[in-house]
Amino acid sequence: MHHIVIIGGGYGGLKALGVLAGKKGVRVTLVDRHPYHFLQTEGYDLIAGKEPFDASIIGLRSLCAGFGDNVAYLHAVAKDVDFDAKKVIFEEGEPLSYDYLIIAAGAVTRFFESIEGLRNYSYGVKSLRSALKLKEFFEQELYKRLESAAHAKECYSILIGGAGLSGVEIAAEMQAYFNRYYRSNALACGKLRIHLVSGGETILKGLHPAVVKAATKRLLDLGVILHTGAHITKVEEKVATLENGETVPFDFMIFTGGITAAPFVQGLKAEHNRIGQLVVNPFLQIPGHEEVFAVGDAADLKDTAGRRLPPTAQTAEQSGVDAAENILALIGKRQMFVSQPKIMGLAIALGGTYAIIDSGKFRLYGVAAYIGKKAIEKFYKWPLRLKAREGFRRLFTCPKR
């Protein structure tokens, strides 16, 4: 019986699990420091109050039980990997031996040390905790203005540093949420100001000009304040300074300007790229350790032309599947195949029922794109939810006497 350990219950880890579960001669242990899978692609709906808390997570214990008897879940914090002994080391508890290992521990927000004060006065949005922190702040500010005449006329500001996909989606969803709340309650209160800062000359750097133009118009129509062509150089309590000398006041700051591999990944004794991701060969193996694979944001993924791929759920999922299939090939003494993850297209939520889908061959805007984006999300999460429900019944249904 071959024991395969997967570290990380994100998009890549769960796709690998789906391939391996139920295979003869294989048992799988999924390890994660959190007992849930956070649906990051829908985290903005959680922040903006469009989805309840439980809609943004899937319980890993129940999910693993739903996959069958050859899958187990271990709620633990991985500390290191002894590649020579083939063991995962934890902060607490005994080491876990493996025959094959998939590292899918993901990434965290990169708070650049060159930006003074950034780490002290801003939050990332890669985790459920950070998403809930922003949601809590936002709703408390609304409540304060609703209840108190002294605060009713006050404006408040949210600063978002970084105008990539995450920053743009958060800005649009939060502004749309406030606009809806403001109108529906007919409140004579101070408005929400969302400042979106881009170091580039436009938002969504690298995307098709038509997408950039449409997204920019949508943000401006919602009332988002754009600051382009100037990086943030300093962050103090309640104010950020841009490189052009402009200062932007804020009550809450989110930083989405970059990622770095999770601390666990960065600490492994292996080769890393400049942001701490593991360097892998074309089969997603760590050089020198053919039984160890890295996927998703933990790996330095590249396309067929050798260009580094941006961190997205779809590249994580593709690499997770590829790593699992290559492990099965090794077990079956078959030829592995080269992993070639690619961006199949992008779906961008822009507040309310407006979105943009860019497939590379065609583009959709507005409600049609929104419906398409929601369909993509449901196609991913509902099979997992059904598995988790099945697992819950297995774990907690009492046998009839």
Overall description:
- By secondary structure, this protein is of the alpha/beta class.
- The protein folds into 2 domains: 2-33 and 76-109 and 259-344, FAD/NAD(P)-binding domain (3-Layer(bba) Sandwich); 118-255, FAD/NAD(P)-binding domain, CATH 3.50.50.
- It has 11 helices and 23 strands.
- It has helices spanning 11-20, 43-47, 60-67, 118-121, 128-147, 149-152, 165-184, 209-222, 263-266, 313-331, 367-396; strands at 2-7, 26-32, 36-38, 57-59, 71-75, 78-82, 87-90, 96-97, 100-103, 107-109, 156-161, 192-198, 225-228, 232-236, 239-242, 247-249, 252-255, 259-261, 285-286, 289-294, 346-349, 355-358, 363-366.
- Strands 5-2-1-9-20-19 form a 6-stranded mixed sheet.
- Helix 8 links the parallel strand 12 (192-198) and strand 13 (225-228).
- Helix 1 packs parallel to helix 10 (313-331), helix 3 crosses helix 11 (367-396) and helix 7 (165-184) runs parallel beside helix 8.
- The longest helix has 30 residues, at 367-396.
- It is globular and about 65 Å long.
